[in-house]
Amino acid sequence: MGPKTGLGLAVLTLACAINSAAQIAQFEGQKIADIEYSPAPILDPADLNIVQLLHKGDTLEALDVGDTIDAMFATGRFADIVVEAEKAPAGGVIVRFVLTPQLFVGGSAVEGKIANPPNRAELLSGSQLVLGAPFRDEDVKRSVDRMTRLFRSNGLFEATVEPKIERAPAGSDADVQQVFVTFQVKAGNRAKYGMPVIEGAGPLSDDTVLRATGWRYPLIHWWKRVTSQRTRAGVQGVQARYQKDDRLLSKVELQDTDYDAEHHKAIPHLNITAGPKVKVEAVEANISKRVLKRYVPVFSEHGVDTDLLVEGRRNLHDYLQSQGYYDADVDFRVQPPVNDLETIQYVISKGQRYRMVHLEIKGNKYFDTDTIRERMFIAPKAFNLRRGRYSDAFRRRDEASISDLYQANGFRDVQVVTQVDRNYQGHQGDVAATVNITEGSQWVVDRLTVNGPLEPNRSQVLPLMNSVPGQPFSDVSMAADRSAVLTWYYSHGYPSATFRAQWSGSATPHHVEVTYTILEGAPQFVRGILTHGLHTTRPSLVEKAISLHAGDPLSPVEQTETQKRLYDLGIFARVDTAVENPDGEAQHKYILYDFEEANRYSVSAGIGAQVARFGKPSTQSLGSPAGSTGFSPETSVSVSRLNLWGRGHTASAHLVYSSIDKSGSLTYEEPRFFGLDGRNITYSLVYEDQRDVRTFASKRAEASVQVSQKFSKATTGMFRYSYRRVSASQIVIPVLLIPQLLQPVRLGILSANVVRDHRDNSANPRRGSLNSADIRLAARWFGSQRSFGAALIRNATYYSLTKSIVLARQTEFGLIEPFSPPKGLSEMQSVPLPERFFAGGADSLRAFAFNEAGPRDTGVPIFPGGPSSQATGFPLGGNALFTNNVELRFPLIGENIQGVLFHDMGNVFSSLSDMSLRFRQHNLQDFDYMVHAAGIGVRYRTPVGPVRVDLAYTLNPPSFNGFNGTPQQLLQCDPNDPATAGKSFCQVTRQNTGRIQFFFSIGQTF
Predict the structure, then answer these.
(1) 466 to 419, 469, 500, 518, 520: CA distances (angstroms)
(2) SS3 for 952?
(3) What is the Cα–Cα distance from 805 to 825, expressed in whole angstroms?
(4) What is the model's pLDDT at position 171?
(5) Sign of CA dihedral 214, 220, 223, 228
(6) Alpha-helical regions (H) of 691-781
(7) Which CATH topology does 525-597 take?
(8) Which DSSP symbol is given to 49?
(9) Could you tell me if residue 876 is left (phi over 0), alpha (psi between -120 and 50 degrees) or otherwise beta?
(10) Cis before 118? omega within 30
(11) What is 435-479 written as a DSSP string?
């Protein structure tokens, strides 16, 4: 409770005591027959027993009445208390407490059409009505004023705000003390900028200043609409324009904005102080202006004073030392202003340039060298540090870091001194640094005494402490104990707990005795949970997510965790939580949750493109079986309906259209399946028409149900049953034109997928790992016409070699094992074409164009006794897969452009037994070998992920026989008939997949 609040309550308590004194005085000394409250008590019974010092049968004392009033006011739940006394019919006195409850803010909302900016969240934040705080009428008036100013700053000068105050209907002790405020807003039309009033522009013309604001469209000169962000950007633009002319002391202020209601214009008033030009230059050494702007703070602080110039001297000195100029000397001088120009000169003597070639650490016994090195900035020359890294600032920082490490482990007397050896081993310009560590004695805890906590808290608090007998003693350990203990008490409803630590030496040198004194304070408990703002959502859904209940310790940690779980439902735009009456001394308090439900409908659209070699099927020509370079634009649209029936369920539709993929899906998701956190069930309908394989076009119509379970933060499991109808069309290889392969196939598949994601950033990881395993089984038991098992296992790891260089690698292994094939097909050919493994492209194996890896059509029968035809060289897919990708990612230009060196290897194989690691192709019918590619890439960072360009060179691309005619000509060619085989258009040509592959897409490869 703050001092002002306490003073106000004291004055009010005194007034109440004076008003009640006359009645109490005439009954003082009599027996109390009864105690009444009007209205009914609004304190929890346990709190009332604590603060009520009067009891039936006791003698009435004025002092007890005053103390009771003080204690009741201290709870914070009363705005006024009057005590009345009257004679009881049967004798004695009846004491009546007439109570005026204190009202609290139970929730707030903004209703009406809002032109963003400002949005609803900004308006509510600007209102500064604090959830759970005492309510006062004047606070609402101030909230309206703040909202109006926020509207005006965004050009909505005609906006109106009307507050509607509702007191919760009586029905419980809790509801009667809550007030809900709804702000009805009408934003009106947004004003445009008008010609600003400019004062003191100085050397710049008004037109130049106006262009710098950006408040008017160039060329057409139409005024833009007003927003607070655009106004700030305009002022900053003018400031930047003056800085461009080296006027570092310039000041640009927005004094006011007038509103021209007749023309609906906002007229900003700019006050400009240009100031003289300031020239900062380096003399006697060549230092770029870019370096001066980075290290001399007069540019960023827009001012010139001695402190900033001294800081600039120190920064430049450290910079030069980090560049190898260890003897650099930097000073500055300020020239008097001449002709509107003030010159600041940094006089720099670089001296000899050195190179850090050796770093040695001596004297360390407790910690190994690697543990110390990982905390140091000083470093010898390396691949990415051509001259090493050293400066006095780095040396001081390293010495402090090493000292802190030792002191945190009990070495209170440690000393760290760095010795620098110039011209190391007689080599001019070489430098070696030796870090000498004098560890000293390790201080140890002999005895720990903990005063204060009582059971059962004591048994739970003691294991949290590190400063126990036999452990190293340090101030860091005591601070950690204090933090751990107070955090435990805070999370278990003891907000007033205190912790005091003392230590003294023991009889043994470098041994100490530690004493902790813990005062728990009064505990606080949950009186109840109050919610507001639920209109569509069912209260039962929210209740399941709230883990605190009446009688539990009031844990802010659990309160916040509940807020997070409510946000995770994905149906709320805002979830505010607070403790009602936070400053009151009552031990039982309500926890409030104020909700703003999210928009129930969301629509998103996207557009993208890929540039690469695609294997798109064609009925016109069989040329280019390895695909041809193409451009594939893509558009997508998603529509979602949130919080169906108030249960938190979601229905969504997703459409994708491109030249190689046309798909649509309908999904219905039910979170918290069977009431369990992290378990969701999803029902899906999918239709897909893919044309990304040169051999055929595939269609898939699928219905599925999937249960996902989040086992931990990193591990998720998915269990799925899908029933699909797959078919292949536009098949251009005659040997595949048989009834068994042309007919659509129905597949019933049961699958399980487990993902463990330990990456630090899923969009652009720098460290961590990603592991996944997908197991599928299609069998007659599940209604499938084909039977096979399949597995796809993936492992990816990411290593930060330096602060900016990342080594990433990924390995994928896949296997399809068919069984019980239909009559007329072998096991290996019974897997439908769309279900086989295909690989190649920007996201898998960059040695190939999209889906061009693996076995190809060689014209031989696909099963014994089957038909044969002319070889086409078209990809057929396979039943085994292995790929390995390695990338070295490094900064290329600035912070947003990254370079990549990569190596990809792998292939799709006919079967597991055909998998081979050999490098060379045996013949034109052999595709079961490992293909390698090396390449370079560029990544440009954008808000939606990195834009990627990759150029790959395939070291050993496969060759094959291809056919350059049309499908009709292919049907006329019989390799067993000399009459047709001799025709010119029946001649096969030797082809290959190509050595150069180019890809353009979005997102990292893996």
Answers:
(1) 35, 9, 15, 16, 20
(2) strand
(3) 51
(4) 47
(5) negative
(6) 739-742
(7) Ubiquitin-like (UB roll) (3.10.20)
(8) H
(9) alpha
(10) yes
(11) EEEE--PPPEEEEEEEES--TTHHHHHGGG-S--TTSB--HHHHH
Q: How far apart are CA 582 and CA 27, in angstroms?
A: 37
* pLDDT (0 to 100) of residue 5: 40
Q: Which of 129, 121, 109 is nearest to 150 (CA)?
A: 121
Q: Which pLDDT value is given to residue 14?
A: 46
**Whole-angstrom Cα distance, residue 503 to residue 449?**
10
Q: Tokens 């994928």 correspond to what residue?
A: 812
Mean pLDDT of each 10-residue bin along the chain, 1006 residues long: 40 49 78 89 88 90 90 91 89 90 92 88 90 92 94 93 82 67 93 92 87 92 94 93 86 92 93 89 88 88 85 91 87 87 91 90 93 90 79 89 94 94 87 93 94 87 92 94 94 93 92 94 92 91 91 93 91 93 92 92 80 59 61 85 90 88 91 83 91 74 93 92 85 58 83 94 88 94 91 95 89 93 76 88 89 81 54 83 95 86 95 92 91 94 83 92 70 64 68 87 83
CB 182 within 8 A of CB 109: yes
Superfamily per CATH, domain 359-438:
membrane protein fhac (3.10.20.310)
Q: What is the CATH number of domain 277-349?
A: 3.10.20.310
The strand pairing partners of 101, in sequence order, are: 78
Q: How far apart are CA 288 and CA 285, in angstroms?
A: 10
For residue 25, give the nearest of 52, 61, 66 by alpha carbon: 61
Strand ranges of the sheet holding 444-451, from the earlier edge strand across to the other edge: 444-451, 511-519, 498-505
- 821: which DSSP letter? P
Please give the Cα distance from 22 to 85 (Å, whole number).
10
CA 422 to chain centre: 47
pLDDT (0 to 100) of residue 867: 53
Cβ burial of 868 (10 Å; 0-12, 13-18, 19+) is middle
Tokens linked to 267: 């007229």
**E strands of 894-946, at which residues?**
897-909, 931-940
- Fold category of 3-101 in CATH: Ubiquitin-like (UB roll) (3.10.20)
DSSP code per residue over 653-699? EEEEEESSEEEEEEEEEESSGGG-TTEEEEEEEEEEEE--SSS-EEE
What is the predicted pLDDT for the residue at 134? 93
Question: Bridge partners of 544?
Answer: none
DSSP assigned state of 586? -
What is residue 456's predicted lDDT score, i.e. its pLDDT?
A: 87
Domain boundaries, the chain: 3-101, 104-186, 192-273, 277-349, 359-438, 444-519, 525-597, 671-1002
Count, in order, helices (H) and strands (E) of the chain: 19, 40
Contact partners, residue 396, CB within 8 Å, separation at least 6: none
Q: Do domains 277-349 and 359-438 have the same CATH topology?
A: yes
The contacts of residue 809 (CB under 8 Å, 6+ apart) are 796, 797, 884, 885, 886, 887
Q: Which two tokens stand for residue 490?
A: 């805070």
204 CB neighbour count, 10 Å cutoff:
20
CA dihedral 486, 490, 496, 501 (to 10 degrees): 0
What's the residue count for the chain?
A: 1006
The residue type found at 481 is D
Please report the beta strands in 65-122, taking only residues with DSSP state E, as ranges in sequence order: 78-87, 93-101, 104-111
pLDDT at 219: 87
Q: Is the domain 444-519 a CATH 3.30.565.10 member?
A: no
